[in-house]
Design a protein that fits this description.
single chain; 147 residues; mainly alpha; 84% helix
């Protein structure tokens, strides 16, 4: 019994849904930047600031994503073990949805993405997100206290 081309295509789309969704979101965001400001003005601002500064900022931004991923990786060792790259992509998609969706409704994506990628229950993913946000609040208050 052979799989039909349509079923095979559907299976491929399901397996790569997160990657395809990420690519679509980035394309929409790039089109939005072109529409509002234009890429030429954005690149000229980066050029005037210096490409070294832009590279350092991007490396530091990626570093924060790696630290967030490491925190989740450590929080769910049984579920995420050996899948750091998948989890890093999940963290980036979650952050992108937080930025792009109104009223931080992107927060709801974390438990759903964890369920889809790692089979984690929605209640457990939501509870973990709540605990991690409390850790974030603790870090912000500590930073404010030292300032």
């Amino acid at each position: 019994m052979k799989n039909s081309p349509v079923a095979s295509r559907r299976a491929w789309i399901i397996r790569h849904a997160m990657t395809l969704g990420t690519a679509a979101i980035i394309a929409v965001y790039a089109a939005f930047i072109q529409w509002v400001w234009g890429w030429q003005s954005v690149v000229s601002l980066w050029s005037s600031a210096g490409w070294g500064s832009a590279a350092i900022a991007l490396v530091l931004l990626l570093g924060t994503y790696v630290l967030r991923t490491w925190r989740i990786y450590d929080y769910f060792p049984a579920e995420t073990g050996g899948h750091f790259g998948t989890l890093l992509r999940l963290v980036q998609v979650h952050n992108l949805l937080n930025i792009m969706l109104p009223f931080r409704t992107g927060e709801a994506s974390f438990p759903l993405l964890m369920k889809r990628e790692f089979g984690l229950g929605v209640a457990r993913g939501t509870a973990a997100l709540f605990v991690m946000r409390l850790f974030d609040l603790h870090a912000l208050l500590a930073a404010a206290g030292t300032g």
